[in-house]
Design a protein that fits this description.
Layout (H helix, E strand, L loop, with lengths): L4 E3 L3 H7 L3 E2 L7 E4 L4 E8 L2 E9 L17 E3 L10 H6 L1 E6 L1 E7 L4 E8 L5 E10 L7 E10 L10 E3 L1 E2 L4 H5 L5 H5 L9 E5 L24
Parallel strand pairs: 2-5, 5-11, 6-11
Antiparallel strand pairs: 1-3, 1-8, 4-5, 4-7, 7-10, 8-9, 9-14, 10-11, 10-13, 11-12
């Protein structure tokens, strides 16, 4: 499960870092990315990487209305090839969803405590993502995406039973390759094996209206 994440870097800097042409005008950095907001996504177009801004929350092409996207922010890696909402995107429309951290909530004595989780030694990394294009009867097409998830690794298990699939840099091209086969892709959908770090943060992050640096700063309960 991944319900919030961060993209603190400037979007144009992200494009340069991932070797992608920048086609995401208007995209802003965020300390508290929430579902249905625009997120930085890298796709392959004519063999080249392009950074675009897609809605977080997948809307399949066959959906009657886009509100379904609010329920499809994550896609379980174990069933990607089977679920009607995800299988075509998994086969044909894979992407990198860029982030520098994500949030998870751990059960505490009186309430759930939010934690900010990072990949140690990597300022920015890529979630495995899938994307779709949806077209209303009138208006512009809607491009949307979902984060692929897997079982938690040993580090994440105390916080949550699942985690987003974090791709190592050497796996990014394979995930984006339109000719990649199912078995090779499935081998990427595993718990992250590298070092991670986490710290508790303020409940400011609980509200999508709060989007400022305090959302990611270490926080200690008064009197703790």
């Amino acid at each position: 499960m991944c319900g919030r994440f961060t993209t603190q870097a400037d979007p144009q800097a992200l494009a340069a870092l991932f070797g992608a042409a920048f086609q995401a005008e208007g995209l802003k950095n965020s300390y508290n990315v929430a579902p249905l907001q625009k997120v930085p996504v890298v796709v392959k177009e004519d063999g080249n990487r392009v950074l675009r801004a897609f809605q977080w929350g997948l809307v399949p092409s066959w959906a009657k209305e886009p509100s379904i996207g609010n329920r499809l922010i994550n896609a379980r890696g174990e069933t990607l090839a089977e679920k009607p909402a995800f299988r075509q995107a998994f086969r044909k429309r894979r992407c990198l969803i860029l982030a520098d951290g994500f949030f998870e909530w751990k059960a505490g004595p009186s309430r759930k405590v939010p934690y900010f989780i990072r990949v140690a030694g990597r300022e920015v990394f890529a979630f495995a993502g899938i994307w779709e294009q949806w077209q209303a009867a009138e208006g512009e097409p809607l491009f949307s995406c979902a984060i692929v998830t897997t079982a938690a690794n040993a580090f994440m298990a105390p916080l949550h039973a699942r985690m987003p699939v974090i791709l190592p840099p050497e796996a990014e091209d394979l995930w984006l390759d339109p000719g990649a086969e199912g078995e090779a892709l499935a081998a990427l959908l595993v718990p992250y094996g590298g070092e991670m770090a986490a710290h508790p943060v303020s409940t400011l992050v609980n509200s999508p209206r709060n989007n400022r640096p305090e959302c990611v700063l270490p926080y200690e309960e008064p009197g703790a």
